[in-house]
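Why do we bother with holo predictions? Because pocket geometry can differ from the apo form. Keep that in mind while you read this record for 2-acetamido-2-deoxy-beta-D-glucopyranose.
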Amino acid sequence: MSFATIRSLVSVTFILLSLRVVANPTPTSIVTVADLPVQAAFTVPIQKIVNTTGGINIAQSGRARWSSSQKVFLQPPPAQPGTSVNATNQVITYTMKLGVGSGTYQDMIVDTGSSNTWVGANYSNPYEPSEQSSSTYGIVQVTYGSGLMFGREIIDIVNLAPGFTIEGQSIGSAIFAFGFNGFDGIAGFGPVDLTKGTVTALLPPSGNSQTVATLMNNIHAQTGIPEILGVYFAPEGLSSENGQLAFGGIDQSKIVSGGIGGVFPTSGQYWGVPSTNFEYGNTSIGGQQTCIADTGTTFLYMSSDAFQGYQNLTGATLDSTTGLLYITSDQYSNLKNLNINIAETVRIIVLELSIANLPHIISQMKQFYLTPNAQIFPRALNKGIGGDPNKIYLVAASSGTGSGSDLNCIIGLVFLERWYSFYNTQNQTIGFWQTSLTNANTN
Ligand SMILES: *[C@@H]1O[C@H](CO)[C@@H](O)[C@H](O)[C@H]1NC(C)=O
Ligand SMILES: *[C@@H]1O[C@H](CO)[C@@H](O)[C@H](O)[C@H]1NC(C)=O
Ligand SMILES: *[C@@H]1O[C@H](CO)[C@@H](O)[C@H](O)[C@H]1NC(C)=O
Ligand SMILES: *[C@@H]1O[C@H](CO)[C@@H](O)[C@H](O)[C@H]1NC(C)=O
Ligand SMILES: *[C@@H]1O[C@H](CO)[C@@H](O)[C@H](O)[C@H]1NC(C)=O
Ligand SMILES: *[C@@H]1O[C@H](CO)[C@@H](O)[C@H](O)[C@H]1NC(C)=O
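The structure, written out:
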C-alpha cells in the first residue's frame, strides 16, 4: 500500500459514514480513538549515537532517505534542482542490542521507517548461525536513504531481552552493506507491508511478492503480547538516560499522566499520520501535511510551502554549509511554539440534506508542539556538523515537496525525543504522548 492509500482512508470512511449521517445528523466520530495502551510486557534500553563527522549538508542527508523511500515504494523522487543527494548518515541514531543466532549485536539501528531486520553491516561481526538456523534460500535487498544492504535471508532465533527469545525469525545476513559504518544492522519496527519486494525466494513459489514477518509480528504470534511498540527517547544534554523501547504496550512511568496526547489512525507501509498541519504561533503555515513518524530520521521535514512560511515568520536564514536554518539570539528570544496539529477524528455535519449541500467534514485536531528550545539544534553539536559554534540552528527542514503531495513530511527524532510515541500494528494506530521532556530546556 502506498501513502495514497493512507489519504484515502479518510475519504473512503467518509463515504460510508455519510450514509449514516442521513439518518443521524449529529456529529459522528468515524475513527474510534482507543485509550492509552496497557503497560508494556517488557522493556529494553536503547543507546543514543551522535555522529557529527558526516559534515556537509546534514539536512540534505535526511532528504536523501526520503527520496530513496519514494523511489522504491511510491514514485520518482521530487526534483530538487541544484542539490545532489549524498548518502550520508543521520546525525542522531538510536541503537539496541539484539541476539541473533549465536551472535550478539550491540549496535542495531532502531528504525520505525523500515521493517526488515538484518545483521552483518560490520564485517568483523557477521551473522553466526545457531543450531536452530535454517536457510530460506532467499536473497534480501533493501535500499535506504542512507545506504543499502544485500544478503541472504535466513531463519534463526532472536533474543530481545533476558527471557524474550523469538524462534524462527526471518533475518537478513548481509553479504554487502553500504552506509552503516559503526553499526551492526537494523531492527525494523515498521509495518510488515514495507517488507514486500525485499526478499526474493529462489525456490518455488519464487518471486518477491511475499511479506516477511517482522519482529513485532512474531513476538505477538509466539507470546500473545499485543503488537504495540512504545518508544521513549531522551534529548541531547540529558545523558542520564538514553531511551527505551517498550513491547506490548507503553511504559506508563515515561509519560505525563493527564498530559497532552492522542491516538491516530494509520495505514499502509509507513507509520503515517495522514492529516496534519503546522502553525507557527497562531499562524497557519503551509497546507496539508502527510507525515510519517520515523525514528531513523533526525530532523523535522515539512512541505516546501510550510517551510517557507516558517522561515518567513521566524526571520531565519538558510545556512548553505549545513542546509539548516539559523536565527539570531534576538530571534530566538522571540521564537514561538511550532504547533503540529494532527486529525484525531473526522466528524461529519449535515445541516440540511440536499445534493447541493454535501456533508461537510470537520477534522478534530489534536495539538502537539515543539517549544522554542525544542526547535533549535543542540548547540554543543554545532561544530561537529560543520556549523558555526555560535550560531543557533533550527531543526525544521524542507522535504522539497509541496502541500497536497502523497508524502511531504517526516516527523523525526527532534519531535520523538519530546513526545513519547507508540505504534500499534494490530489496530493500525499511532500515538503520541507528553513526557517530562516535552517542555525541557536542553539545547
Ligand atoms: C559517521 O558518519 C560518517 C559519514 O557518513 C562515516 O563516514 C563515519 O564512518 C561515521 N562514523 C561513525 C563512528 O559512525
Ligand atoms: C556531497 O558530497 C560531496 C563529496 O563528498 C560534496 O562535495 C558535496 O558538497 C556533497 N553535497 C551535498 C548536497 O551534501
Ligand atoms: C565491529 O565488530 C568488531 C567485533 O565485534 C568490534 O570490535 C568493532 O568495534 C566493530 N566496529 C565498529 C565500527 O563498530
Ligand atoms: C484493538 O481494538 C479493540 C477494540 O477497541 C480492543 O479491544 C483491542 O484491545 C485493541 N488491541 C490492541 C492490541 O490495541
Ligand atoms: C493564540 O491562540 C490562543 C488560543 O486560541 C490564545 O489564547 C492566544 O492569546 C493567541 N496568541 C496570540 C499571540 O494571538
Ligand atoms: C515569504 O516571504 C516572501 C517574501 O516576502 C513572500 O514572497 C512569500 O509569499 C512568503 N511565503 C510564505 C509562505 O509566507
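The first strand starts at residue 42 and ends at 45.
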